Structure formats: structure tokens, C-alpha cells
Amino acid sequence: MKTLEELNQNILEITMIIKDKYPELSKYLLEMHDTIPDEVHPEIKSKTLQNYYNSLEDLLKKYVSNHSN
């Protein structure tokens, strides 16, 4: 399992790829369910960050596969 620091770094990297290469996807970043905690004081866990990273990765992969030339 990755550390919180590694997961945060991975999330930052994929987010920057989306913003730099596919800015049209940026609007979906704020809408992703994994970014909206349903608790008053949510605890950030490795599993939560991994799920968020996975959702970003899925978004990017699906978009690229559907829009590649």
C-alpha cells in the first residue's frame, strides 16, 4: 500500500496532466464524488486517496480512449 504522501503526489501528477493536456476535463474534477466528503470532519485515509486517484485515472483513460486519433 502506498503512503499518504505517495498518493497525494500521484493525485497531484495526474491532476496536472488533466489540467495541462486535457483542460476540458477540469470541470469534472470538482464534481467527482470522491472529493466531496459526507462527514463534518472526514478522516483522510489511504483507501480514500487511492479511490480518488483511481477515479481520476479512469476518467483520463476513458477520455483518451474515446478521443484519440
Cα shape:
globular
For the secondary structure, the number of strands is 0
Residues in β-strands, percent: under 5%
Q: What is the CA-based Rg, rounded?
A: 13 Å
Distance between the termini: 35 Å
Low-pLDDT runs of 5+ residues are none
Class computed from helices, strands and strand pairing: mainly alpha
The proportion of residues forming helix, as a percent range, comes to: 55-70%
Counting H and I runs of at least 4 residues, what is the number of helices? Answer: 3
Biggest beta sheet attributes: none
Rounded mean pLDDT is 85
What is the succession of H and E elements?
HHH
Explain this structure.
This protein is mostly helical. It has a domain at 1-25. It is 64% helix and 0% strand. Helix 1 (4-21) packs parallel to helix 3. It is globular and about 40 Å long.
Search tags:
69 residues, mainly alpha, 3 helices
Chart the SSEs and their pairings.
Elements (H helix, E strand, L loop, with lengths): L3 H18 L4 H4 L16 H22 L2
Helix pairs in contact: 1-3
Kindly summarize this structure in a few lines:
The protein has 69 residues and is mainly alpha-helical.
